[in-house]
Amino acid sequence: MAYSVTLNGPGPWGFRLQGGKDFNMPLTISRITPGSKAAQSQMNQGDLVVAIDGVNTDSMTHLEAQNKIKSASYNLSLTLQKYVDIKTTIISVLIPWVESVIPRVEFLLMVWHL
Predict the structure, then answer these.
(1) 26 and 68 belong to one structural domain
(2) What is the C-alpha to C-alpha distance for residues 87 and 92, in angstroms, rounded to an integer?
(3) Integer Cα distance of 97 and 46 in angstroms
(4) Domain count of the chain?
(5) pTM for this structure?
(6) Are residues 48 and 22 in the same domain?
(7) Least confident among 28-32, 34-38, 50-54, 86-90
(8) What CDD domains does the record tag this protein with (predicted)?
């Protein structure tokens, strides 16, 4: 789910990027500086950068993205997509299910051994 953030300038904005077309990785937020403008927004580490000042980042290299951000003198507008940790999501669904199944399996094993 995409969302927009506007950081009021001037910079520094308080976040770092990783990835880019030259790394064959999507541009993502790799770090947010505590207390920064970015930290006071909804941005989170791992969020995907979809657009910078309305320009799609799909074909941007890391340097092009950095330069686009540096060129924002007053406000920086970002379109981001929330990071979803699939492992955490799967585990949060599976653990309650496993916990509900184990007592039944233990019971069946006890009955089977009688």
Answers:
(1) yes
(2) 9
(3) 28
(4) 2
(5) 0.72
(6) yes
(7) 86-90
(8) PDZ_PDLIM-like (cd06753)
Q: What is 34-69 written as a DSSP string?
A: TTSTTTTSS--TT-EEEEETTEE-TT--HHHHHHHH
| Residue pair 9/73 in contact by the 8 Å Cβ criterion | yes
What is the domain extent for residue 90? 84-114
Rounded distance, CA 114 to CA 109, Å? Answer: 9
| Owner of token pair 């929330």 | 82
Give the residue from 62, 10, 65, 67 showing the smallest Cα distance to 37. Answer: 10
Task: Match 């940790």 to its residue by tokens.
Answer: 85
pLDDT in tens, 29-47: 999 999 999 999 989 999 9
Same domain membership, residue 94 and residue 79: no
Residue 23: strand, helix, or coil: helix
My answer on whether 49 and 92 are in the same domain is no
Find out whether 32 and 43 touch, Cβ atoms under 8 Å: yes
